[in-house]
Amino acid sequence: MTTEVYLVRHGETMFNQLNKVQGWCDAPLTVKGIDDLKRTADALAQVHFDNMYSSDLKRAIDTVHLIKNANVVSNIGKIRKLPEFREVFFGSFEGDDIDQTWDLIAQTAGMGHETNVQKIINHLGLREFRAATKKADPRHLAEDMPELDERMANAIKVLAKITKNERRVLVVSHGDFIKTLAIKYWNQSDGQHDIIFPNNGSVTRGLLHDDGKFEIVDYNLDPEDL
Asked: Residue ranges of the chain with pLDDT lower than 70?
């Protein structure tokens, strides 16, 4: 059985609004974040899901419950939390100012001063950007690409196991993690270069086949396009 997977990015949070690094650290949804999510919830209200899941971070949990409560055609019980779908971990940079963090990473990579993360990634490539982030982290705890590759593969393996008899599921996750999944599993990505960052409340749709293979078929859809 092929399982259709709706990957939703959580709503805007206070750390998003304050321009702070937000990986495994957490912040509450903003009023704007909740309002934007209502559009997503309304767009999915008539879509039947056999189950709904979320990352174990509160911003994702709050998001999945908002979508669950608006859905009128699904009978969803307790939400299972999946730590495998957490955001990318930024180690010692968690909660720091984003521009200062990118600038430090750029300097560590020999680029001089640069606060535009897209320019840094375009210059270094995504794999080297992750490596530079880990190197710049004073405790070297930030996830690099080998660690992320392993976690993504495990996330898909776990999802395949728990959705074995489910035709359509929803999973609330995070922007950088969803983007990294898309770079690896989206047929319009070459697997090497960066792609646009998904919007808060956007939907990325994937197919999880019965042989365990995963592919993304739609990326960063606006709720109005569903």
From this structure: none
Is 167 annotated as a binding-site member? no
Give pTM, 2 decimals.
Answer: 0.96
Is 9 annotated in a binding site? The answer is yes
Q: Which of 10, 94, 143, 174 is catalytic?
A: 10
- The answer to whether residue 87 is catalytic is yes
> Of the residues 87, 94, 143, 174, which is catalytic?
87
Q: What is the DSSP code string of 61-77?
A: HHHHHHHHHH-SS----
3-89+143-225 sits in which CATH class? alpha beta
Query: pLDDT tens digit string along 104-148?
Result: 999 999 999 999 999 999 999 999 999 999 999 999 999 999 999
User: Catalytic residue at 10?
Assistant: yes
Q: CB-side exposure of 177: number of CA atoms within 13 Å?
A: 32
Residue 1 is labelled as binding a ligand:
no
pLDDT reported for residue 66: 98
Widest CA span of the chain, in angstroms? 54
